[in-house]
Automatic annotation (TrEMBL):
Residues 1-25 are annotated as: Disordered. The keyword Transmembrane does not apply. Pfam families: UDG (PF03167). Belongs to the uracil-DNA glycosylase (UDG) superfamily. Type 5 (UDGb) family. This is Type-5 uracil-DNA glycosylase. PANTHER family: TYPE-5 URACIL-DNA GLYCOSYLASE. Residues 92-269 form the Uracil-DNA glycosylase-like domain. It comes from the Bacteria.
Length: 274
């Protein structure tokens, strides 16, 4: 391990920044957040989405999440992926930097985005989501196998409310709170283009409304409950109106049981238009 040029600390990760992973936004000189305070400071100081993505991708502020994502990447890999390298770092957003639609999910999957390095890529949830995005004109191809596979989004950008794969897919309240400044800053940097936000699941819904409220947006009070197809209007400090739409999460629990069907997701996406 080499010392970090800025902090002098050692960066122990399956894929160190600057190692040449496709789409890696960070370099060996990217500052690393190692506490909630540093997350807030670095997020607030990110001037662009690229700058923000770099900081997110090397964050080490939540010890439990750091240990889990790296253990999975090194020793707990799924057998079918045993021969593949794993990203093993926080996962930044992906898609159109001037997108009018922002899609907010919960967190990367341990053997999905934690492996591929691209949000909702390489697992059944991503297969379901990107196929729908392709059918509705947001994606140039229906599959998402690995970073650098040619996938592109037009008019949409995808983010997670928590950027590291959590054990049992369940980040703690403190981990959600620590990660929230990354989400809040992404919303700020995206605000002038936004027309709609699609929240996948109750966690994405709650995280989005909470972050917007903290940023000074006008949001309904009390906060509206999540439901599939729920729509509420939120207003930015600049006076721009954005529609927040709820959708059942694209998890296998929902898609394999028919709670969320391809047609249901297509209908929601089509109503938001590419």
């Amino acid at each position: 391990m080499d010392p970090h040029p800025v902090t002098g600390e050692l960066f122990d990760s399956p894929v160190p920044p600057g190692a040449g992973w496709p789409g890696d936004p960070a370099t060996r000189h990217t500052a690393i957040a190692r506490s909630a305070r540093e997350v807030a400071e670095l997020a607030a100081g990110a001037a662009t989405l690229d700058h923000l993505a770099a900081g997110i991708s090397v964050c080490r502020a939540c010890p439990r999440l750091v240990a889990w994502r790296e253990d999975v990447a090194r020793t707990e890999r799924r057998k079918s992926f045993a021969a593949q390298p794993y990203w093993g770092r926080p996962v930044p957003s992906f898609g159109d930097p001037e997108a009018p639609l922002l899609i907010v999910g919960l967190a990367p999957a341990a053997n999905g985005a934690n492996r591929t390095g691209r949000v909702f890529t390489g697992d059944p949830s991503g297969d379901f989501l990107f196929a729908a995005l392709h059918r509705t004109g947001f994606a140039n191809q229906p599959t998402s196998e690995a970073a650098g596979d040619g996938l592109g989004l037009t008019g949409a950008r995808i983010i997670a409310s928590v950027r590291c794969a959590p054990p049992a897919n369940a980040p703690t309240p403190q981990e959600r709170l620590t990660c929230r400044p990354w989400l809040a800053r992404e919303l700020e940097l995206s605000a002038r283009h936004l027309r709609a936000i699609l929240a996948l699941g109750a966690a994405g819904w709650q995280a989005t409304l909470t972050a917007l409220g903290e940023l000074g947006w006008e949001v309904p009070r009390p906060l509206p409950k999540f439901a599939h197809g729920a729509r509420v209007q939120v207003t930015s400090p600049a006076g721009d109106e954005v529609t927040l739409v709820g959708c059942y999460h694209v998890s296998p629990h929902n898609t394999y049981t028919g709670r969320l069907t391809p047609q249901m997701l297509d209908d929601v996406l089509a109503s938001l238009g590419p």
